[in-house]
Automatic annotation (TrEMBL), chain A:
Keywords: Oxidoreductase. This is 2-oxoacid:acceptor oxidoreductase subunit alpha. It comes from Megasphaera hominis. Pfam families: PFOR_II, POR_N. Residues 16-246 form the Pyruvate flavodoxin/ferredoxin oxidoreductase pyrimidine binding domain. It comes from the Bacteria. The keyword Hydrolase does not apply. InterPro entries: PFOR_II (IPR033412), Pyruvate:ferred/Flavod_OxRd (IPR050722), Pyrv_Fd/Flavodoxin_OxRdtase_N (IPR002880), THDP-binding (IPR029061), Transketo_C/PFOR_II (IPR009014). Residues 276-367 form the Pyruvate:ferredoxin oxidoreductase core domain.
Automatic annotation (TrEMBL), chain B:
Pfam families: POR. This is 2-oxoacid:acceptor oxidoreductase family protein. It comes from the Bacteria. The lineage of its organism: Bacteria, Bacillati, Bacillota, Negativicutes, Veillonellales. Keywords: Oxidoreductase. The keyword Oxidoreductase applies. Residues 14-175 form the Pyruvate/ketoisovalerate oxidoreductase catalytic domain. The keyword Oxidoreductase applies.
Amino acid sequence: MENTYEIMTGNEACTHAAIAAGMRFFAGYPITPATEIAELSSEWLPKVGGKYMQMEDELASMAAIIGASSAGAKAMTATSGPGYSLMQENLGYAAMAEVPIVVAYAMRQGPCQGVATLPAQGDIMQVRWGVHGDHPIIAVAPASVGEVYTETIRAFNLAETYRVPVVIMTDAMLAHMSERIRIPDSSEYECVDRKRPTCPPEEFKPFADDGTGIPPMASFGDGYRWYCSGLIHDETGFPVSDNPQLTSDSIKRLVGKVENNLKDIESYEEYKTEDAEYLIVSIGLLSRSVKDAVDQARQEGIKVGVFRPITVWPFPEQRLAELSQNKRKLFVCEMNEGQLYHVVRESAGVTPVVQITQNNGKMIAAETILKALKEEI
Amino acid sequence: MKNNHYEIRFGGSGGQGMMLLGDIFAKAAGELAEREVVLTRSYGPEARGGACRSELISDTEPINYPSVRKPNFVLAMSQLACDKYCKDMDPNGILLIEPKFVHRVPAHIKNVYSIPMTQLAIDETGKKVAANVVAIGAIAALSGFVDVELVRKAVQEHFKPALRKANDKAFDAGVRAAREEMEQLDQQESKSA
């Protein structure tokens, strides 16, 4: 296998990989630090027969990619905090109508407009619960430009497999920094396409469970008729408002698409955890700083390791619970006021959990992490 | 800090080509020398005026922390950049300044090289816009963290062929000036020793 290496930014890698994964439609509205994904999509998509649409805002962007995906195209948008907020209603529609979509989300600092150019991790909970109601969502948080590439491909595959929205969470720093990455050959990965109906069109029930929990999906225009609704609906897709059993079953099936397939969806990295007495949980680019801190701590004889969820949602609770059992303390290092902390506490059992946070738009330095670690052990 | 770990910061004013310098050295160290590289840049209005910078880390090992923390080399193409970007320098690091724009250097930095890059660009190519290519040559020779010829190749591959002759001249002028400066410093040091 010939190894191809290139130097690219996180946003370039995301766009490049999305096209490699089969993205043929992008709709978006520019926002720092995600703008380059829209810009590059506008340049590259037409060259592969794809379409780029510049939308008037983020509500329309989300609506457009849902429409494109319903017509059979693999579709993505890219945004940051304020834009993601505006996308929520339609994002819920994608979850409810089971339309596969991908959102590239470069996190920036602070609530509201915040600081557009600085990285943060303040949107971990928004990604999970920005949409109202119980709904399935998958979010991956790559730690390097190389991983942005491979996780973007995985994001499309997960969206297609489970018919759920998938969010690729980066931050302002990872989005804009360049690294030397290996471009995987197309023979090294699979591009998953959504399951299609095999029955005659007149027998097609668009939301009938075929036993997997994930109904086959027809594209608008290929002869199968389906009613696409954000209301609770029956197998035909038509709204039903007076059936408690169906309401409950529908939501359980939607949420179950993720909950019943954790083994396939969840992914995480364990770094020097085998003999660790302490464990630091951290996601994304920041986890690399944590690794530096762990290396330095180990030189001083402190047995510490890193647990890095790559899928933030679903959070790999079970694995963390196993790892927590024989630890003296867990630490959660994150660039916010404490979000992942609460999720980690749920998995930690009786093991104490300590926060290491810094929320000023700067990557937390290894020295700061090491100091905080030493104060607690 | 490991010997193969090198941190370099290119500082100047928006429009002086500091982003390009980052790209060129990332290409030389990453693509051509096959090392790990992380490149970060100023983003925002400063890229169009005021002090702006790009920063490169090069290593034979994977790079964890992505920001430059203790630069081994700083280029200052403007006074503002010099004031802003030298504070965290490695005390044994190298500071390269453009004397046309930089008139004060921090006292704590020992290895200061002053090369009239803008003037050399005008002398060699007739265009001051080539000052950043002179700087590339000078940095390649002074820093030594990546082979000078690989840096030249990165410059050649970046620009269209029509600019090759002028860029080679600018690049060579930078390399030459840097080597002369280094020799002079060596002589001064051996005299004082």
